[in-house]
Amino acid sequence: MTQIDWTGHPPFGRQVSLKHTLELLQAHRGERTPLIVELGTAETYSPDGLGNALIAFSWYAGKYGARIKTVDIREGAVRNAREILKQYIPEYADIPEITNADAFEWVTTLHEPIDLLYVDAGFELVGEFNYRAFVKRHPEIPSFYVELHNQFDPGCFHSGSLMLIDDTNPDTYDGKGIFLIPYLLDRGWRKIDLRGVPVFPMVLLEKA
User: Fold this and answer.
1) Please, which pLDDT band fits residue 62 given cuts at 50, 70 and 90?
2) What CATH class is the domain 15-207?
């Protein structure tokens, strides 16, 4: 499989970790066109980290072939994501399928293999606004991300599927992956040590 040539890529932060993730995706893809799914899309852009993953994914998809589906419950985030893509990679801005919806309900519509799932919705913290709103809608659910994962069609995840979980300490899993990562490690996923130490840390998992 062709290695990624990063020459001329658009500006995005956390380059070492995002490049490592996409290089693994490229190595795993074989002859298929991979599907990248993003939960929680770009709400702003900063060269230090925020709003960068969708730019990196879209550039990769445009250069090497991939499909992207991204969802966010916030209308402003969806609008901003489209504007960020038009500004920084106009030639690939139309590649992602961007949906304004509740991810908890939207993921039930997916019935195809996912090669990379990027988890970047709200924090699992009691005081965080979006998480409080989720708990209000679903008071019976103790962990948003565990239950969100269980909403997926099991066929979406195959051997070699990657899951990149944003804003999570790679040692303690504090952050968005605090409940999800231990849950998945007990169910056939393994942790991959990401290169780099980004401003906003991430954890990468692979399904066995």
Assistant:
1) very high
2) alpha beta
